[in-house]
Amino acid sequence: MDSSSSGQNDPTNTTDSTQSEQETATSSKSKVKRKPVMPRSTVWDHFTKFKTDNGDTKGKCNYCNKEFCCDPKRNGTTALRNHMNTCKKHPHAIETRQALLDLQPNSNNVEGEVGTLTTWKYDENAIREALVSMIIIDELTFKFVEGEGFRKFMRAICPKFKIPSRWTISRDCYLVYVEERSKLKSYLKRNCQRVSLTTDTWTSLQRINYMCITAHFIDNDWKLHKKIINFCPITSHKGDAIGRAIETCLLEWGLDKIFTITVDNASSNDIAISYLKKKLANWGVTVSNSDYLHMRCMAHIVNLVVMDGLKDVGESVLKVRNAVRYIRSSPARLKKFKECVEYEKIDGKSSLCLDVPTRWNSTYLMLNIAQKYERAFERYESQEPMFRLELGENGVPDFHDWSECRKMAEMLSHFYELTLRISGSRMKKKFDKYWGDIDKMNKLIYFATVLDPRDKFEYMEFQFCQMHGEEKGEQLFQKEFFNSQNCGSFDMCTRLDTFSNCPINVEEDLEELEKFEEVLPSVGLTQLGGSSCSTPTLNS
């Protein structure tokens, strides 16, 4: 047999040729690109597939922008499908869970009314808004949401809710502030009524000067509103700095129709009001050339009057204050004092309280409670020798001191109950300084009395006689309302008195109200006998 025939029958050569043919076929297949397959799952109608920097395949929700891994070999589309069924922003999501019934009690707490029946379902955004509202209304710290007690409470009541951090809560509170500020700003622009301002300044413990500005106005439904429109640090308590700060606030809010500005009796406020009078005159929105823009704070005047009255009995008040401080400084002393109260059979459940010397209302509370335990103080003095040694021979309150404090507490009770009754030469002098001279008073106060259905014109004459005496009061009343120069003002005030005597019927009295608005700008505040329309919806 020749070599050629032997080579054909060699099994080794046959195997090598077969391997070479397979390698050639494999290489030819690898060179052919596979046709891409279009996604067939319905979830891709709601998701967008993309590649990350690391080469991972992910899908992003078209509604809430949440991302999920969706590699076909490792993850699949199960996570995407589950999210599509629970996405809150999915426009075609169907709530299959049955709503829960909730009985909400009425806020007015009227007996016999059960409440309002509503439906409830879990809403994370609504819960978060309610949480922010609670932080603001109850003046809680932002860190409150990170407290263990609050987290335990939320796990018990609503485990599904994801509690935000204090940083998130602070941002949410600021967003609420911006939204409410925008609403109030647009409301004030839409309504043309005038706004009255009150402001005060103080210095914090960190030696930083602050100022707060509050706006008071009446809406179209005759409801009085009070809104804080600015709370900011200021450079100093000088009048020019206060005036510029108020001007900046008014420009930011777009407020120019200012009726009155109420401040305390500091001399710097007089400079600030003078500064604002010039600015309002330049804006052309003044009422009677801003002659009645400055309204002195009545609460501050009352405080000055009472503090001046306390100086007359200052020594007696000091003795009572030291006695109360001595007993409250130790639990043992307080226990022994209670035993003296029980032995004297004094029926009183109020405990001794120490006052703040700069606040007369706290001094009233201290005196009012302490004078009830006069006999207990005397018994305590006889049983506790250190009481007299600590306070000194003349430092223990005696019968005269208790009598003075009892009279002062009785007088202060009228101030405390908002009924002004002035007594004593020093207090009357302080009262006359601010309200004694009728020419120095802001006569807008009269206007409110004339329009009050409880007072009317007759009460004005009665108060003039009460304040200045029978003879002088009648003369001042005649001078302000009945002299020849103000004959037109009496007619206007009489019309106001009659007009406010009965409820307003809008349909019947609209014509009369329009006539009143036409006449009012032509009659100055001086002609009105010190009165002017303080109704914010009637613009002077």
Automatic annotation (TrEMBL):
Ranges of compositional bias, category Low complexity: 14-29
Annotated protein name in UniProt: BED-type domain-containing protein
Polar residues bias spans: 1-13
Source species of the chain: Hevea brasiliensis (Para rubber tree)
Matches recorded under PROSITE patterns: ZF_BED
PANTHER family linked: ZINC FINGER BED DOMAIN-CONTAINING PROTEIN 4, ZINC FINGER BED DOMAIN-CONTAINING PROTEIN RICESLEEPER 2-LIKE
Region annotated Disordered, chain positions: 1-38
Domain BED-type: 38-99
Pfam families referenced in this protein's UniProt entry, alphabetically: hAT-like_RNase-H, zf-BED
A Gene Ontology molecular function term of the record: zinc ion binding
Entry keywords, A to Z: DNA-binding, Metal-binding, Transcription, Transcription regulation, Zinc, Zinc-finger
InterPro entries linked: hAT-like_transposase_RNase-H, RNaseH-like_sf, Znf_BED, ZnF_BED_domain_contain, Znf_C2H2_sf
SMART domains (alphabetical): ZnF_BED (SM00614)
